[in-house]
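quick one before i forget lol
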Amino acid sequence: MSSALDRAQYEALIEARVFEPDSLRSALAARTRRGVAGADGRLLILAADHTARGMLSASGDPLAVADRFTLLDRLVRSLAEPGVDGVLASADILEELAWLGALDGRLAIGTMNRGGVIGADWELDDRMTAYDADHVESCGLDGGKVLLRIDDTDPGVARTIEAVASVVTQLADRRLMCMVEPLPYLKEPSGRAALDPSDERLIKVVAIASGLGSSSGYTWLKIPGSDRMREVAGATSMPVLMLGGDPGADADRTFDRWADAMREPNVRGLVAGRALLYPHSEQPEVAVRRAAAIVHSSVQPGGPS
């Protein structure tokens, strides 16, 4: 039977939001859960928290991710693939996926600080506007994710560092994963925030993120892939998951970089969204199977987990 989302299911979800609003959160809390590390200690997580801070573009289309039916359909289809371990998303998407029955046996990671709306003057002021630690726990999630973008000229970054350190401690106290995404950023002459491609600065922010909080036992890092992954991953002993971004037509380079990086002992997988859900020239299932074969060496494309 096809795992695709049909319009009748989607319209039933809309009706549930009106007449049975408690059913969304209840479905999330009641889903069948699994251990975070799984059998091989490697993870392929689908990232779907982009919309919560207004990031809607993919593969050259500025509104590709905006249509909720299409996004949910691609997520449902991809989560049904062997080797996919779970999803990272805001509460709206996690609840919708749980209500649709797509999260049984899959990890659910709640995004936390989505206040840095893309393109805004305050973009690097990444405030907590989604999950907090209490609700990560009470909603039955497996962990929370925080974004830590460091620009040396923006005083708002200090507040973000403080907030992220607090979340690391709160989740560790609850024995829940805290996925920290440290990224080096810079301000362009126009004032727009942009990712700094410097490997040296990436290594620096990895080191900073590793020292946050009162316990590091439940911290995983989410960082860009790099041609110098030995040095980048070598800056920490924490498990590292590589992010995907939007590779556009150059997906082969992204997949090759992921495969090379997986040779490092603490590089444990991927957290990828648009690269897998909105690939440039293929269906999401094809991209997801390719990623699963990289992350879980025993999983062959299209084969059992």
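fyi The first strand starts at residue 43 and ends at 48.
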